[in-house]
Design brief:
alpha+beta, Ribosomal Protein S5, domain 2, Alpha-Beta Plaits, 8-stranded mixed sheet, binds adenosine-5'-diphosphate, binds magnesium ion, carbohydrate metabolism, nucleotide-binding, cytoplasm, ATP-binding
Length: 390
C-alpha cells in the first residue's frame, strides 16, 4: 500500500478545489495474468493476481451539479455539468475512464451529485498492467460510497468493463476490472469468464516470486490483431458448432472435436482454436498444480502457454520472445511467458527468490545489449483488490 500516494491525492484535491466536504478515499490495483491468455472473450478461464501497484481516487460531493476531475500525475483538470449528458472528451483521454463509469452508474439508476474527484497512481500506464481498470474500479467504489448506490461488487466490475467497452471504446474482456475489484492478498483469482464464478486460490509460492518484466515496447498491431483474433475464434466456433451444436464458444470445445473438424477449418483458424482450447486446459492444470504445491508443473504450464501464444496464436513479438528466452536460461526460473494482449507489454516469470537479483541483472543487461531498450522489472506479491480507505 502506498501511503504517500493517498496523502498526495487528498492534498492535491483540496489544494486545487479548495475546502469542502470530508473526502472519501478508495484504491484499486493493477494486475498481472499468471495464465489464461486470450481465453476471456472465448468464455474461458483466466488466472490473474492483483499487484502491489494501485490507483488512488479521492472524492467528495458538491452542493451543485458540477463535476470536476483532477489527474494529479498529469496536472490536468476538467469540469462539466451533470445537467447535460456526459460526453466523450477528445482532449483529455484520461477523463473518459471516469466519465464512462459515471455515465454507466447514471444509466443503472444511481443519482449522481456534483462532485470533485482527484486521482494518482503507481501502476505503470499503458504497460499491460491495467492502469485503466484500476482507475475505473477505484472511481466506481468511491462514487458508490458517495451515493450509497446499491450494487454488488461483481456487478460493479462488470459496469466498469462496460464503461471501457462502450464509453472509452476499448473492447476488453472482464478480467481486468474483475481482479482489480475482487483480488485478495496472497491469492490469485480463478475466473470463469462465462458465468463470472470465481475462486480465490492461495498463491503459496514458498521460495519463489512472481516477477514481471516490461519490454518497453508496444507495437501498433495490438488493436487490429486483437479484433482479428476475435473474428478468427468466432469463425472456428461456427465450423465446430455445425457438427457439435453444444459448442457455443471455444470454451465448450474438446481437443478431439477440433481435430474432427480440422479438414474444414482454415489452417490459421485451426491454430487459433488449438491455442484457446489448450490454454483453458492449462489454466485448470495450473490450479491443480498449485493446490498440490507443484510449482515446477505450474512453471511448465506457463512455458507451454507462452509457446502456444507465440506459435499458434501468434501474438508475441521478437522483444517479448527474447525476454522469455533470456529468462529461461537463468537457473531458478521455473516459468516465463508473455502476459496481456500481446505484441509487446510484459512477461510474467516464476523465479526462485535467491535468483531474482541474478535474473534482474542478466535480463536487463542482455536485453539492452540486443535491443537497445531498457527493460523494467517489477516484483510484487498478490495484493488486495479495491478498498475504501477508512
Ligand atoms: P493499461 O491499462 O495497460 O495501463 P491502457 O491504455 O488501457 O493501458 O490505459 C492507460 C490509460 O489510462 C492512460 O493513457 C490514461 O488515460 C489512463 N491512466 C491510467 N493511469 C493514469 C494516471 N495515473 N494518471 C492519468 N491517467 C491515467
Ligand atoms: Mg487497460
Amino acid at each position: 500500500m502506498n501511503q504517500k500516494l493517498r496523502k498526495t491525492v487528498a492534498e492535491q484535491l483540496v489544494r486545487t478545489f479548495g475546502p469542502g466536504e470530508p473526502l472519501i478515499l478508495g484504491r484499486a490495483p493493477g494486475r498481472v495474468n499468471l495464465i489464461g491468455e486470450h481465453t476471456d472473450y472465448n468464455d474461458g478461464f483466466v488466472f490473474p493476481m492483483a499487484l502491489d501497484f494501485e490507483i488512488v481516487v479521492a472524492g467528495r460531493r458538491r452542493a451543485d451539479r458540477t463535476v470536476r476531475l483532477l489527474a494529479v500525475d498529469l496536472r490536468e483538470k476538467v469540469e462539466f455539468s451533470l445537467a447535460e449528458p456526459i460526453v466523450f472528451d477528445e482532449h483529455f483521454g484520461w477523463s473518459n475512464y471516469l466519465r464512462g463509469v459515471l455515465k454507466l452508474l447514471q444509466q443503472s439508476g444511481a443519482e449522481l451529485p456534483g462532485m470533485e474527484l482527484a486521482f494518482a497512481g503507481d501502476v505503470p500506464l499503458g504497460s499491460g498492467l491495467s492502469s485503466s481498470a484500476a482507475l475505473e474500479v477505484a472511481t466506481a467504489i468511491v462514487v458508490q460510497r458517495m451515493t450509497g448506490f446499491g450494487i454488488e461488487r461483481p456487478a460493479l466490475a462488470k459496469l466498469c468493463q462496460r464503461a471501457e467497452n462502450e464509453f472509452v471504446g476499448m473492447n476488453c474482456g472482464i478480467m481486468d476490472q474483475f481482479i482489480s475489484m475482487m483480488g485478495e492478498q496472497d491469492h490469485a483469482l480463478f475466473l470463469d469468464c462465462r458465468s463470472l464464478e470465481y475462486r480465490q486460490i492461495p498463491l503459496e509460492l514458498g521460495a519463489y516470486r512472481i516477477v514481471v518484466c516490461h519490454s518497453g515496447v508496444k507495437h501498433s498491431l495490438v488493436e487490429s490483431e486483437y479484433n482479428r483474433r476475435r473474428q478468427e475464434c468466432e469463425a472456428g466456433v461456427r465450423v465446430l458448432a455445425a457438427h457439435f451444436p453444444e459448442i457455443k464458444a471455444l470454451r465448450d470445445a474438446r481437443p478431439e472435436q477440433l481435430v474432427a473438424c480440422q479438414n474444414e477449418l482454415d489452417p490459421v483458424v485451426y491454430r487459433r482454436c488449438r491455442h484457446v482450447i489448450s490454454e483453458d486446459a492449462r489454466v485448470l492444470e495450473s490450479i491443480q498444480a498449485l493446490n498440490h504445491g507443484d510449482l515446477v508443473r505450474f512453471g511448465q504450464m506457463m512455458n507451454e502457454s507462452h509457446d502456444s501464444l507465440r506459435d499458434l496464436y501468434e501474438v508475441s513479438c521478437s522483444e517479448i520472445d527474447l525476454l522469455v528466452e533470456l529468462a529461461r536460461q537463468v537457473p531458478g526460473v521455473l516459468g516465463a511467458r508473455i502476459t496481456g494482449g500481446g505484441f509487446g507489454g510484459c512477461t510474467v516469470n516464476l523465479v526462485a527468490e535467491e535468483a531474482v537479483d541474478r535474473f534482474t541483472e542478466r535480463i536487463c543487461r542482455l536485453y539492452r545489449e540486443k535491443t537497445g531498450i531498457d527493460a523494467r522489472i517489477f516484483i510484487s506479491k498478490a495484493a488486495d483488490g479495491a478498498q475504501i480507505i477508512e
